Known about the structure:
It is built from six helices and ten strands; from the N terminus they run E-H-E-E-H-E-H-E-H-E-H-E-H-E-E-E. It is an alpha/beta fold. Helix 1 links the parallel strand 1 and strand 2. The longest helix has 17 residues, at about 70-90. About 30% of the residues are buried.
Amino acid sequence: xxxxxxxxxxxxxxxxxxxxxxxxxxxxxxxxxxxxxxxxxxxxxxxxxxxxxxxxxxxxxxxxxxxxxxxxxxxxxxxxxxxxxxxxxxxxxxxxxxxxxxxxxxxxxxxxxxxxxxxxxxxxxxxxxxxxxxxxxxxxxxxxxxxxxxxxxxxxxxxxxxxxxxxxxxxxxxxxxxxxxxxxxxxxxxxxxxxxxxxxxxxxxxxxxxxxxxxxxxxx
Length: 220
């Protein structure tokens, strides 16, 4: 199985469930990067930091690079090419951390069906508040790295996901940010061999989103 990995809390919890199951063997994490910025698409996490993350998890990180203003056509073509390379190796299943976006699920399933692969969604239709309670209870740590200005202000950047964070969210914001309200970077928990020591750096505004740079904490 291939896991389409964003590096955030939902991906981390979905991967945890898969790794605990004896039904699947996860061969790699596949992440899409903006080629211009060398960062995870939408999350804004640096390539270097996501490589550290994968190394701590103990799985290979496969990278797909898309252009600065990537179109759906470009993304679909590049992903299909990479998926076919895995299919040739006998990998027929791809996992995603999506929870309840029906259109997105149908799009992913349709693209994979066309090339003879199938998608699974370990968190599908789960209650998002319950998922966050599970995430926190398992000992995961995840930091907010991106927020949509339509839903939250920049003060949320750099906060860790904990119960105080959940209680502070407006009623209109999904506890998992499943509607794109916020994105996170997972840096500790039961899927990590070693927790990552990270620091929160510069804040940047771009196209309706606030990002904060996360980087490895330097030893003093």
